[in-house]
Amino acid sequence: MSRGSGQHGPRRVVVTGVGVVAPGGVTREAFWSTLTAGRTATRRISFFDATKFRSRVAAEADFDPVAAGLSAQEIRRADRYVQFGLACAREALADSGLELDERTLDSTGVVMGSAVGGTMALEDEYVAVSNTGKEWLVDHTYAGPFLYQALVPSSLSADIAHRYGTHGPTQVVSTGCTSGIDAIGYAWHLVQDGEADVIIAGASDSPISPVTVSSFDAIKATTPENDDPEHASRPFDATRKGFVMGEGGAVLILEELSHALARGAKIYCEVTGYASRSNGFHMTGLRPDGLEMAEAIRVSLDQGRTNPTDVDYICAHGSGTKQNDRHETAAFKKALGDHAYRTPVSSIKSMIGHSLGAIGAIEMAACALTIDRSAIAPTANWSQRDPECDLDYTPNTAREKRVNVALSVGSGFGGFQSAMVFSRLKEAA
Amino acid sequence: MTAARAVITGIGVIAPSGIGADAHWKSVLDGSSRLGRISRFDPSSYPVTLAGEVPDFDPDEYVSPRLKVATDRWTWHGFAATQEALEDSTIDLSGMDPYETAVALASSSGGNEFGQGELQALWAEPDGAVSVYQSIAWFYAASVGQISILHQLKGQCSVLVAESAGGLDSFAQAVRTIRRGTKAVLAGGTEGPLSPYALTCQLSTRRLSTSTDPATAYQPFAAGAAGYVVSEGGAVLLVEDLDHALERGAAIHGEVLGWAATHDGRASRPGDGGDVTQVARAMRLALERADRSAADVDVVFPDAVGVPECDRVEAAAIREVLGEDVPVTTQKGQLGRMYQGGAALDVATALQAMRYDVLPATPGLTDPAPGCELNFVTEQTAQRTSLALVNARGYDGFNTSLVVGRYEEAV
């Protein structure tokens, strides 16, 4: 990044490890099995009594921190979303075969995304210190010893850095529902520019708590249909009624190409493009034309000199709100032209819900696995065509297909529209 | 990607030192404490009663009624700092491609006061619920989203959280974004850590000063250091592609030359002030990437958290990288700690020091603690100032250093 270093172009970056915590199965393999079976993990909320809320369904993860290898101290200290992050990091690092030692710790960083951070712990503690909301001047003597870690979401990346003793750039990116893609994008830039050789990159969120459920109730973004939880998340289907909240996380090991090749690492794919654009329109509203998302897609394809017609699969944002589904369908057509009609699209949120900031990283994990294993996850619960959503949404059944280029997009509150491209590794020049 | 140079062309300050770069600089030169008893709520029942608040801030001057109800005070400060920075820069955004403009701010804890009100609305009554604005007002991205919409900044936007260090990381991110084709990026950040619940959260670190005397409550590097005093506010600055700035004839405050972020790789604990090696490595790398040597540094603005073990670590790192003679100055004891906003404010102060060739003093630092011996600027000093190194460290191990310099044409 010193002046003049741009002459040889940015360094190439590959994915060499994947770790996932998701509803329906809390490891990478269980996650992939959920997706390829088209199994839905949405259910009635069990974490708390949700009777008073409009939306009472969610995709909860059956997560056991002890089984995920967390120490007693980590469990005591870390809120649920941080525990997800630690579990994902462990699985991804093991998968990568990377050995972190004195020579590599300085050049290894941690960049994680989270939309709502420690809200779960913050709300629990709030209830205690405020006498169930009765006191504005809360009683600090009831507060737990790790409350500050809940307040600042930087704890997510810090706790991962602590466990592995990494000394490279460490950051949390918090751009709402595009946090996952944006965190991996930030990490990509750091490795491209030589600020790090390896980044433990991803995102996690655990938003299934009363305050977040109430937040989306208030704006009617989540589904009010509570009678058939397994079929509540229906992206791109004409009968969809809103999104279903989820939780979880994913970590990808991003590594500079020659670094990975030198150690003979298994390479899932190369990160060949990432861009984010803002719609400058509304914090929650989307214009139906999808122009800004199309621009993000265009730029991210252009960076890797990827022709739009080379896109083999689109991992959609597919939240299951009418506004979103139409917005991104328009964006895909704008960015890919007629090729959009020939490209399989799917929303894994149909199965594992929308885990806010985490989902972008989980979707990138899905893209890495899609390229590696030549299979495309379906959009579950699809039965009725929406005339304005007329692409191939891979309904209900997974498909075998060799995928060389996978595009993923995210759209979030604040107006952020992000796109990322993973490509099968071409021979290193 | 290019190796484009990035310069700072606009400074917007909203801090206990005042509103606007000029008011801030005047307060800094004056040196009197801007801390006082918390007025946002009655702090009597808390061990911490002092804070720094933005004086005479009228949100209606900066925020429309429609936006005001939908945003936290922290975002109001963000709107105001942005407006100040854009006015200072004289940039005409309407003449630019919206995709070539962006906003990359740091936020450590989101819309605290707003969020506490919503939690109360949800929990105080059995059928309670949050308002329609909770989903867009509390989360960390609220300010960046709102600012991008208000000013039509549609390029690569970012929201960074690295406790206090993220305020400097945002400048690095602005330059990365500019090198990828964006022309102008707002960087920095504001914080709003003053609500009863947010204060309660901060108490758990045991790093806040419990003193009730504004003049001595927060004394970084001093023998009497006993923690920090928290403040609201911060700074937003406009970082711009050099060629773009030159073409429009902008006044250039300085150049972002280099940066580095490291991590201690271990948690913050009482008695453990962090890792000297990693604090030093951030400084050394930032200078290296700026293509400057230790001898070129005219002044250091340290993190200066005021926790004795942390101050000793930072002082040792500064001595290791820059020696014992480099001038070091901090106004945090005077203005309080604004977390990521404070790091951004230090960049603003550094640019003002270069503009006026004056090193502002560190008010009240007459008796450095053992281990904190540095060449502190104890009295305001007229001195040619062309290169400043700014440090920011975040709770739980984050270290970032940023090098900003006087803009000079390439030879």
Helix/strand/pairing class of chain A, anyone? alpha/beta
Instruction: Write the CATH architecture name of chain A.
Output: 3-Layer(aba) Sandwich
Shape of chain B: globular
Count of extended strands of chain A: 15
What is the CATH class name of chain A?
Answer: Alpha Beta
Report the CATH C-level class of the largest domain in chain B: Alpha Beta
Secondary-structure element pattern of chain B, one letter each: EEHEEHHEHHHEHEHEHEHEHEHHEEEEE
> Which pair of chains has the greatest number of interface residues, and how are they split between the two chains?
A-B, 95 and 92 residues
CATH topology of the largest domain in chain B: Peroxisomal Thiolase, Chain A, domain 1
Task: State the fourth-level CATH superfamily of the largest domain in chain B.
Answer: Thiolase/Chalcone synthase
Produce a short descriptive summary.
Chain A is an alpha/beta fold. Chain A has 14 helices and 15 strands.
Structural account:
The complex is a heterodimer of chains A (429) and B (411). In chain A, helix 3 (80-96) crosses helix 6 (155-164), helix 7 packs across helix 14 and helix 10 (291-303) crosses helix 11. Chain A has a single domain (5-118, 153-423), classed as Thiolase/Chalcone synthase (Peroxisomal Thiolase, Chain A, domain 1). Mean pLDDT of chain A is 96; it is low at 1-7. In chain A, strand 14 (405-412) and strand 15 form a beta hairpin. With 429 residues, chain A is of the alpha/beta class. Chain A contains 14 helices and 15 strands. A ten-stranded mixed beta sheet of chain A has the order 5-4-6-8-1-9-15-14-10-11, sandwiched between helices. Chain A has a three-stranded mixed beta sheet with strand order 2-3-7. Chain A has a two-stranded antiparallel sheet with strand order 12-13. Chain A has helices at 28-37, 72-77, 80-96, 119-129, 147-151, 155-164, 179-192, 210-218, 257-262, 291-303, 322-336, 339-342, 349-352, 359-373; strands spanning 13-21, 42-44, 57-59, 108-113, 170-173, 198-205, 245-246, 248-256, 269-278, 313-315, 345-346, 375-376, 399-400, 405-412, 416-423. In chain B, a hairpin with a 2-residue loop joins strand 1 (6-15) and strand 2. In chain B, strands 1, 2, 5, 6, 7, 8, 9, 10, 15 and 16 form a ten-stranded mixed beta sheet that branches. In chain B, strands 3-4 form a two-stranded antiparallel ribbon. Chain B has two domains: 6-247, Thiolase/Chalcone synthase (Peroxisomal Thiolase, Chain A, domain 1), CATH 3.40.47.10; 258-405, Thiolase/Chalcone synthase (Peroxisomal Thiolase, Chain A, domain 1), CATH 3.40.47. The model of chain B has no long low-confidence stretch (mean pLDDT 97). By secondary structure, chain B is α/β, with parallel strands linked by helices. In chain B, helix 3 packs across helix 6 (142-151), helix 7 crosses helix 13 and helix 10 packs across helix 11. Chain B has helices at residues 21-30, 65-68, 73-89, 112-123, 134-137, 142-151, 166-179, 196-203, 242-247, 276-289, 308-322, 332-335, 340-356, and strands at residues 6-15, 18-19, 35-37, 50-52, 101-106, 158-161, 184-191, 233-241, 254-263, 299-301, 327-328, 358-359, 375-376, 381-382, 387-394, 398-405. Chains A and B meet through helix 4, helix 5, helix 6, strand 5 and helix 7 of A and helix 4, helix 5, helix 6, strand 6 and helix 7 of B. Strand 5 (170-173) of chain A pairs antiparallel with strand 6 of chain B, so a sheet runs across the interface.
